[in-house]
Amino acid sequence: MQIAVGSGKGGTGKTTISTSLVLSAGTDVQYLDCDVEEPNGHIFLKPELTFSETIVVTVPKLDESRCTACGKCRDICAYNAIAQFGKTVMIFPEMCHSCLGCFRVCEEDALIEDTREIGLLESGMAGPIHFVHGRVRIGEAMGVPLLKAVKQKAEPGKLTIIDAPPGTSCSFVESINDADYVILVTEPTPFGLHDLKLAVTVLKNFNIPGGVIINRSDLGDDGVLRYCESENIPVLLEIPFQRAIAEGYARGINLVETVPELRTIFSDMLTQIAFEVTK
Amino acid sequence: MEQKIKEVLILSGKGGTGKTSIVGSFAHLADNKILVDCDVDASDLHLLLSPRPTETHDFKSGVKARVEADKCSGCGMCAELCQFDSIVMEETAVISAFKCEGCGVCAHFCPDEAIVLEENHCGSWYIADTAYGPLVHAQLFAGEENSGKLVSHIKKQARQLAESTNTNLILIDGAPGIGCPVIASLSNVDLVVVVTEPTLSGKHDLDRILDLTEHFKTPALVCINKWDLHPEMSDIIEASCKERGADLLGRIPFDPKVIACQIQGVPVTASDTSLAGYSIRDIWKKLKEKL
Fold first, then answer.
1. Searching chain B, which residue's CA lies closest to the CA of residue A79?
2. What is the reported pTM?
């Protein structure tokens, strides 16, 4: 079973909830941090990282001795990664999406396969938890190939918890599109509600069941609750603001370590979700 | 002599540190400026500024491939060529619009000419009036991948608006993270203000966003929001910023009034009794001097 934790709005508590879930799940569980721009799960799970791999994508490099400046590679490139001025062909590898179209249209074998580094994949164990995350290279705009690599590093047959990035654009969708269930973490504020609605739209488009956790549930209004009720979205848990939780979080101490009673609540939540997903 | 337009961008790395609340307050405090919300997939600034749209436009970018089933012989060549796993073979080829990145390779090589490339309508953008000046904002449709292009587009619109109205300040609310929309929002920016929080996650993400602003050689200043939730961590962050040459603009205390104002839909500096509001006023004063 794969459960993704998302939010729409950033900073609502995705990492808090996803790490709490893996820490409450017993064994045979893995945590995939798909927020490859700003991964934070390692701060709370403190894994021993024993594996690392640089993730690259294929980009073209010009062999000037072979190029006849026919313009075919420039014409097929949809991303303006190849430009041609007169007889001079220029390649901008950072614009390339690695569709390989240019290699296929070049009749002179004038393009050589080169690579662009997307970021670093790391994995290891945090106690019984199999841990994987990616760290996108500073300045790299396309994190999705790294995110896909993180998902591929998952071990089969384990309960998988995915910590998704904020927002609702392509990297969020890539994080949740194979999930059996999505937990959306929000806060009871107009910002939280607005972005929750966007995330719910994505779940509906992909027909993935989901529920909501309201974090800092006493700092705001009842807009989120009323929305969930009207849309028939289950509210799985409400967590009131507590200074002890915030202070623990600040120091990298997980919610279930600060409030151990929540372990049972999270493990029951997992059982309930499993029941719902398989029924 | 014409004055140069200054662009100030508010970023955070980590989401939810308070970017939008602070930009809303700056909007309230600054004279004569254009506002831009570059968080195009979860934009919230409009919720504080009650905009009245004056212009609404479709945003189209790139293409999506579609199979014309009656022409497709089911040969499977497109599925083999596609690098984005967006084509599966049933009786004919079936393309997932979400996975398609619009490269057009499938259409180029299809022996049946059964694949058409259609312009991709992936969002909307708006120019609106607010009590604090014009706002340029946008909404990317859920799951779309052109956030960087939409950000570049609305920034260009804002710049044109600033030029035509003789406005010399553009205040920009950025997206979380360090990826595509953030990189796009950084172009032409004179000064970045990074909003962080006193947590290990906040510090970790602050380091990454400062790496990014350094990478693009854009000066950055830092403010610590909710600093009193962990004073010790705030000191650590302040020291680490100093060490890498990013000045601290100020600290903002944890203040439930920020949420109360958000619920009312007004910037927190509009409240006379908010401690956070006072601190943001101070920060704005300092920021103005830096400009």
1. B103
2. 0.95
A114 by Cβ neighbours in 10 Å (0-12 / 13-18 / 19+) ranks as: middle
Out of B98, B176, B265, closest to residue A190 by CB = B265
Give me the torsion for CA of B281, B287, B289, B290, rounded to 10°: 170
Delineate the domains of chain A, giving CATH numbers in brackets.
2-55+118-278 (3.40.50.300), 64-109 (3.30.70.20)
Predicted confidence (pLDDT) per residue in A56-92, tens digit: 999 999 999 999 999 999 999 999 999 999 999 999 9
Cross-chain Cβ contact B41/A168 below 8 Å: yes
Residues of chain B positioned with their CB less than 8 A from the CB of A252:
200-201
User: Per the CB < 8 Å rule, is A205 touching B142?
Assistant: yes
Provide the b/e sequence for A17-54 (b: ≥16 CB within 10 Å): bbbbbbbbbeeebbbbbbbbbbbbbbbbbebeeeeeee
Residue A109 amino acid letter:
D
Determine if residue A274 is left, alpha or beta; phi over 0 gives left, psi from -120 to 50 gives alpha, anything else beta.
alpha
ipTM: 0.93
Q: Please report the domains of chain B, with CATH numbers, ordered by start residue.
A: 6-50+131-290 (3.40.50.300), 61-121 (3.30.70.20)
Tens-place pLDDT, residues B265-275:
999 999 889 99
Cα–Cα distance measured from residue A195 to residue B212, given in angstroms and rounded to the nearest whole number:
26
Q: For residue range B148-160, list pLDDT tens digits in order.
A: 999 999 999 999 9
If you average pLDDT over residues B241-269, what whole number do you get?
A: 95
Which of A104, A141, A250 lies at the smallest CB-CB distance from B179?
Answer: A141
User: Which strand ranges, in their side-by-side order, compose the sheet holding B115-130?
Assistant: B52-67, B115-130, B133-140, B34-37, B169-173, B6-11, B191-196, B220-225, B248-252
Å between B142 CA and nearest CA of chain A: 5
Distance from CA of A129 to the nearest CA of B (A): 20
Distance from CA of A85 to the nearest CA of B (A): 22
Burial of A275 (0-12, 13-18, 19+ CB in 10 A): exposed
pLDDT, tens digit, 9 for 90 and up, residues A176-212: 999 999 999 999 999 999 999 999 999 999 999 999 9
Q: Do A191 and B204 touch (CB under 8 A)?
A: no
Cα separation, A240 vs B214, whole angstroms: 38
Residues recorded for chain A: 279
